[in-house]
Amino acid sequence: MSASLSSAFLGAFSFLSRLPLRSPELDAKGLALSTVFYPIVGATLGGCVGGLMWLVQPWFGWPMAVWCGIGLGALLTGALHEDGLADAADGLGGSASREKALAIMDDSRIGAFGAITLIWLFMARYFLLSAMGTEQALRLLPVVWAWARVAPVLLMAWLAPCRPGEGLAASVGKNVGARHAVSALFLATMITWVVVPPGRLCVAGGSLAATALAGLYFRRRLGGVSGDCLGAAVSISEIAALSGAIAWGRIAA
Q1: Counting beta carbons within 10 angstroms of the beta carbon of residue 223, is it exposed (0 to 12), middle (13 to 18) or buried (19 or more)?
Q2: pLDDT digits (tens, 9 = 90+) for 200-251
Q3: Contact in structure between 39 and 186 (CB atoms under 8 Å)
Q4: Where exactly are the structural domains of the chain?
């Protein structure tokens, strides 16, 4: 079992990041098991982003530090989630028809809805992170990124794939169940409890609320989720978690 867990752990890093880690080939069940470790991947990548911002800030100021951190985040993930968000925005914004929306999402070219959504995403990241201080960002980013990566696990456990037999949501999602979701939630909660004060559990609240709303919307529009929807959920959940953390900080102050 330990070998299987270690393979799944490396597989999670290999799938969600561009870190140069050797990962064994995993079958569908192994990939499903790897979803349990998504929060750890998120916390690690978020820590790298926060660390770079901490290094840059004394030399070039906080705005440049935020800009560099956002860029590093896209590099570390290969813009995986942003790509899914853009495709989902093009499909869901471009047609009211389920079939046509899925066909648009299959097109790798970016459209107006995708471009506008990406601009909104990066502007939201910039303004939200700019509203934080260096120490706050360093502590919160691992937690925010951990909860954002819980979103796809919850959606795969909750919703059926909208393209049966095709794509990530079908091949992996069919093997993701309640135990995977509960394990991912447990790891994210432990990361939150260790890294930030208890009040910052509002990060989890923002992320989970956004995930639930996104899931309800995907189910109504598409009858389930696709890989693009899962990537979109990560980005949406990240913005919601950052917003929740900042809102709590203002309320508590």
Answers
A1: middle
A2: 667 888 999 999 999 999 999 999 999 999 999 999 999 999 998 887 766 5
A3: no
A4: 29-252
Concatenating the DSSP letter of every residue in the chain gives: -HHHHHHHHHHHHHHH-----------HHHHHHHGGGHHHHHHHHHHHHHHHHHHHHHHH-HHHHHHHHHHHHHHHHTTHHHHHHHHHHHHHHH-SSHHHHHHHHH--S--HHHHHHHHHHHHHHHHHHHTS-HHHHHHHHHHHHHHHTHHHHHHHHHS-BSSTTSHHHHHTGGG--HHHHHHHHHHHHHHHHHHS-GGGGHHHHHHHHHHHHHHHHHHHHHSSB-HHHHHHHHHHHHHHHHHHHHHHHHHH-
Q: Is-contact 122 25, C-beta < 8 A?
A: no
- Among 150, 196, 157, 152, which residue's Cα sits nearest to residue 177? 157
pTM (2 d.p.): 0.92
The pair of three-digit structure tokens given for residue 26, joined into one six-digit string: 């995993």
Written as one letter, the residue type at 5 is L
